[in-house]
Amino acid sequence: MKETKEKLAINGGPKTINKEFDSYNSLGEEERLAVDEVMRSGILSQFLGVWHKDFYGGPKVQEFEKMAADYFGVKHAITVNSWTSGLTAAVGALDIEPGDEIIVSPWTMTASATAILHWNAIPIFADIEEDTFNLDPASVEANISSKTKAIMAIDIFGHSADMDNLRKIADKYNLKIISDTAQAPGALYKGKLAGTLGDIGGYSLNYHKHIHTGEGGIVVTNDDSLAERVQLIRNHGEVVVEAKGVKKINNIIGSNFRLGEIESAIGIEQLKKLKGYAKSREKMANRLSEGLSSLDGLKTPVVKDNCSHVYYIYPLVLDIDKLGISKFKIADALHAEGVQVATEYQNIHLIPMYQNKTAYGSGGFPWTADFARKDINYAKGICPVAEKLNDETYIGFGMCVYNLSEDDIDLIIKSFHKVWNNIDKLK
Ligand SMILES: *Cc1c(COP(=O)(O)O)cnc(C)c1O
Fold first, then answer.
1. 95 lies in some domain
2. Are residues 191 and 306 in the same domain?
């Protein structure tokens, strides 16, 4: 890399990147034709919320589910109209009682935790590992109480959580594991696909994920009973159980979480392309990491042994003490060069709903209910690693926002080098 002492764009110098990157678009002619076929069939949905063959939906829904089960190597894949719906159904399927606790990461999309609250269960936030941004097993164990029933392992940014150690804890305390693999479809953990290592897990198909159907999601499990319960919650189960002969009806408050035929037809084509899209994210991220590796005070993404990373987001951690400057100044300088890095991700525990403990109604329910443990703490300080990353050291780049070429990656690398070479001018 040519070392440049050129004046930074933020200080009036020339901008490094003078083009708009192409937007990421995973859709093509195959999806258009598939939609056309569904339109011609005249069937946009074929679900019935009663015990009938159409309880399981129409031909494209069922074809997509069969294909997804084969693809992910699981016994059951159940489509849903969003992964938020999928997470909600998964939590309900696990025999969760009001006041039960599920340990979850604060470094995730808000739906991971609200799916827990949906059942009047209590999200407990454990801290994360600084290198993978995933749940820290030691913090998970420290947060276990007599009420803990499950761990929600988020495979954030495209890298699997530490499933072996989480499984050890789950076995020791008799807990279930839910995998939220919205951001890591296709990522490997010791030869297995992320999302399939929990008791139940799944993927998002919303429009800013690796592959999508506009809105949608897939629940995966090898457990027949969990699969049936998810299907019931997906589709008005309370009115189905009697005719179907289902005896265990707790939490079978059904909803309409059904995916349409058009979305399923698109999903079939998208799934065929997942491997290719994941590989190209990985290739570009590796090129970026190589180009940034010589920069002092900057930690490029870690990929653990026997794992692969599919880079929904490309995360970087700054050594602020070494750099002697705030991440916001560095980000401003990168923005000016044309690199749109984000300066924060999520500290879910700090949003007003948890800070004020106000969810259902205004009286603090479910935290104030008799069934809930009384000393639930969401104060700043409970997740120091996640908080420090958000406040001081993390910056990230969305890899499913743009379709980046090698030349684009090289321009991003050049921008970082320019900023680093001129870091004194930012102080
Ligand atoms: C996108 C996402 C969700 C929610 O998925 P939707 O399909 O948008 O409902 C949940 N968890 C994580 C980590 C996500 O990135």
1. yes
2. no
Burial class (CB in 10 A: 0-12, 13-18, 19+), 38: buried
Instruction: Say yes or no: CB of residue 206 within 6 Å of ligand 1.
Output: yes
Can you tell me which atom of ligand 1 is nearest the CA of 215? 7
3-state SS record for 401-426: CECCCHHHHHHHHHHHHHHHHCHHHH
Q: Give me ligand 1 centre to Cα 306, in Å.
A: 25
pLDDT in tens, 83-134: 999 999 999 999 999 999 999 999 999 999 999 999 999 999 999 999 999 9
| Ligand 1 in reach of 260 Cβ (< 6 A) | no
Whole-number Å distance, alpha carbon 211 to ligand 1 midpoint, is 12
> Does 180 sit in the ligand 1 pocket, CB within 6 Å?
yes
CA of 404 to the centre of ligand 1 (A): 23
pLDDT at 4: 56
Q: Is there a domain that residue 237 lies in?
A: yes
Domain ranges, residue 100: 29-270
The domain that holds 333 is classified in CATH as 3.90.1150.10
Q: What is the pTM of this model?
A: 0.97
Q: Long-range contacts for 30-36 (Cβ within 8 Å, ≥24 apart)?
A: 30/269, 30/272, 31/265, 31/266, 31/269, 31/270, 34/265, 34/266, 34/268, 34/269, 35/262, 35/265, 35/266
pLDDT band at 252 (very low <50, low <70, confident <90, very high): very high
